[in-house]
Write a structure and sequence with these properties.
The protein is α+β, with helices and mostly antiparallel strands and about 300 residues long. The protein folds into two domains: about 45 residues; about 230 residues, Protocatechuate 3,4-Dioxygenase, subunit A, CATH 2.60.130.10. It is built from seven helices and 14 strands. The strands form four sheets. Strands 1, 4, 10, 13 and 14 form a five-stranded mixed β-sheet that branches. Strand 11 and strand 12 form a beta hairpin. Helix 1 runs antiparallel to helix 2. The termini are far apart. The mean pLDDT is about 95. The chain binds benzoic acid and fe (iii) ion. The site of fe (iii) ion (FE) has 4 residues, from strand 7. Fe (iii) ion (FE) binds next to strand 7.
Amino acid sequence: MHQQESLQLTQTVIERLADTQDPRFKVLMTVLITKLHEFIREVDLTPDEWMAAIEFLTKTGQTCTEKRQEFILLSDTLGASMQVVMAAQARASATPVVAAAATEATVQGPYYWAGAPQREMGSNIAQDVAGEPAYYAGRVTDPQGNPMSGVVLDVWSGDGEGVYDMQVEGQTEMLARARFVTDADGRYAFWSIRPSYYPIPMDGPVGVMIKKIGQHPNRPGHIHFKLSAPGYVDITTHLFVANSPYIDSDVVFGVRDSLIVDFHYQNPGAAPDGREMATPYWCAEFDFCLAPART
Ligand code: BEZ
Ligand code: FE
C-alpha cells in the first residue's frame, strides 16, 4: 500500500511540470524527481538521515567564498565533475573518430586563475617557486597530425610541495602560471617545477565526508593546461607525473591513462633548449591533439 502511494506521489510531483515552458528544464526536473524519489524508497530514508543531508548541503554552501567553492569540490569528489567533463568532450567533437584522437579532458579544479601573463617560448614560469626544475615540451596537432600554430596554452600548477599561489595567505602575484602560444611548427616549451601530489582542502564538509568514507584526500602530481584555438574544441586537462603517489586513486577521479607522462631525470649539464643546468632537472614531453568543433 505504502509503495503504491509513494509511486503516486512521484507521479503527482512530476505532473506539476506539465506547463513548464523550457523542454530541457522539464527533462532535467522529471528525471531528478524520479531518481530522488527512487533513492528515498530504495534506502528507506529516515527523517534524521534526510535532515543530516540537508545540514551537510547547508554547510557546503556556507563554506563557499569567492576563493573557495565547496560545491565544486563535492561534485569532484563524487565523480560528478568527471562524468560531465567526459560527456561534454564526447558531445563537442565533430565525429567519434576525431574525438578519439583528441587529448582527453579532465577536471579544471578550483585553482585556475584567469589572465596569466603570456610568456616567451622556453621561459621559466617558476622562478621563485619551491621545487625541482622541469622542462616541458611538445607539439599541438590536429587529428591528422598537422602542426597547429597559434594555439594558446594556459598553464598552472602548485609548487614542488603541492601548494598553489592562491592558497598562500597574502600571495597576490601569480606563481607557476603563464600562457604560451605555439610556434609555426605547433611547438611549445617552458620551464617550471615537477609537481607534487597534494591533498584537496579537508577543513570543510567535503573533508568530513572523505574521512567518513575512509578515503585519502590526495591528488597525484599534475600540471594543468587549457588549450584553445578558433574552430577547435577547447580542452581543459592535466599532465600527470607517472609513478606519483596516488596515481591510481586520485580523490577526484581525474586521472586518464593517456595523460600520464614519464618525467625523465637529468643530470646537471646542457638542457634540450641549450640552457646550462647547475642542478639535476626533469624532462616531460607531451603532444596535444585538438579536435575540430562541430559546425
Ligand atoms: C586541482 O587539481 O587543482 C583540484 C581539482 C579538484 C579538486 C581540488 C583540486
Ligand atoms: Fe591541481
